[in-house]
Amino acid sequence: MTVGLRTVMTICAVALVGAMPEDRTSMGAALNDTAQEVGTSVGTAFVGTLIAVLVTAVLPDCAWSPALVSSYFHGEQIVFIVLAVAVGLISGIGALTLTSSRATDEHEPAPSETAAA
User: Fold this and answer.
1) Phi-psi region at 59: left, alpha or beta (left = phi > 0; alpha = psi -120 to 50)
2) Quick check: pTM over 0.85?
């Protein structure tokens, strides 16, 4: 999962910086880093909560029993499978919607440009 996520995150970072105007690439890289940090923090909290919900309502004070350890690993597998499917779907949708932003003019031409044409 880590290999897949790092691959997707690297590709997204390169696409983001490549889509930014040349004088704004530092801002794009900083926004990408911030989004990754926030996403990692929220994702870790979300995954931990899901695993805790799937394992048990109350964690024991002493050593875990073999049944609880088995339950933990089963809950972890379910959460990671769901996340892998979600990341795959989001990556697929993102890949299908990518465009070459440098080849697309997103601004209307200035009046002086239309007069010259």
Assistant:
1) beta
2) no
